Model the fold of this input.
Amino acid sequence: MSTVTSATKEKLRAPAADELDAAERMSRDELEALQLTRLQQTVHHAYDNVAHYRAKLDGAGVHPDDIRTLDDIDKIPFTTKDDLRQNYPFGMFAVARQQIARIHASSGTTGRPTVVGYTMEDLANWAGLVARSLRASGVRPGMRVHNAYGYGLFTGGLGAHAGIEALGATVIPMSGGQTVKQVQLIQDFEPDVIMSTPSYLLTIADCMVDQGIDPRSTSLRGGVLGAEPWTNSMRLEIEQRLDIDALDIYGLSEVMGPGVANECIETKDGPHIWEDHFLPQIIDSATGASLADGSEGELVFTSLAKQAFPVLRYRTGDLSTLLPGSARPSMRRMAKITGRTDDMIILRGVNLFPTQIEEIVLGIGALSSHFVLELARPARMDELTIRIEAHPDAMAAEVDLGVATLVERIKITIGSTVGVIVVENGSLPRSEGKLKRLYDLRS
Ligand code: DLL
Done:
């Protein structure tokens, strides 16, 4: 078994222009023309084949023929998770059941899961977009990719799997969990790249340390990480701990799965949305009004080429900002997700997201990245307590100073007073997939 030192690790590189898909090289005008044709087809397809969409469009007095420009999209009513739940399980499918090649479902913390379906062509398109995402991350045919996203109804495992194969890379279908085995296979199979949630990659790195393995010494050169919000400070932490490039992959089951958007390694400035397949919008969550690019709000997507499960103006609940394209100039980027509308904590009138706390915590060396937030209402007022583990190498006095700094920085940047409790190292639950940061103890 060979160990690779930092000096010998070859950096992942950006694809050359001739390695890109045709859509990535289109001009903005060509792309918008394609989007309009595909939008018109999608609206017709949804109207003709899904009773829910027909009723919604009829109710709004809109006929598919009324969509003449991309701006006409604002005439179409939103689709929400609730609409999908009410049509559980297969009411939103737009093709005959014999054409459905695969089903996925998102667990959903409350109520019924949301169920999505794919035709063979949908699966091929999805694999192609994950392959494009991997290529943008610096992955190339022939590389080995360790896939630690969970296999099963969750779209992460199988979605990533098909994309790795479509790219022509070698997939190691590890799935989530069994952390000791993850470490062993990384040592033995020497993958170039790992796919997992950012929080689970830190769990894997901790497990390496427990076994006396330097996380920087493995064969890994890159991580394609997503499925949960993570900050640029977390990226830095991961890149330094594992000596890799860490790229952000975004997606959601309802819109497709992983690979709706992905960062480009040459810029690492937020995921590029693959706009030939998904038309993004940002809206004001309270009023539903469409906002101009550059404003922060809720991301809404319309699928442009899906057969089995077209979505019209699906409200993701994810908060972001649409930004101009950079490494792929004609496709817009999304700013890293700040959080979900459901994760927003309102603390004595101040809105706050777990990612804001993460950003501050990671700037304090004496504290670790392992923390949870507890929201309680002991009296009339809500109180937020951060339970956090100290950095394993920090001295007690440094930890005390770190805690004081944390309280002060939260007060200054967010404007709320929080409690902080330092807990024993290893006592907080470790992520095996999507990390749960917020515990609401109020009810
Ligand atoms: O998590 C799809 C996925 C799998 C994406 C693997 C990337 C990698 P769902 O389980 O339906 O699908 O959850 C979707 O996860 O609405 C966001 O709130 C969150 N999410 C996904 N990717 C990111 C990301 C998959 N890169 C929900 N940054 C979405 C922040 C993300 N949040």
Notes: The CA atoms of residues 23 and 338 lie 28 Å apart. The mean pLDDT is 95.
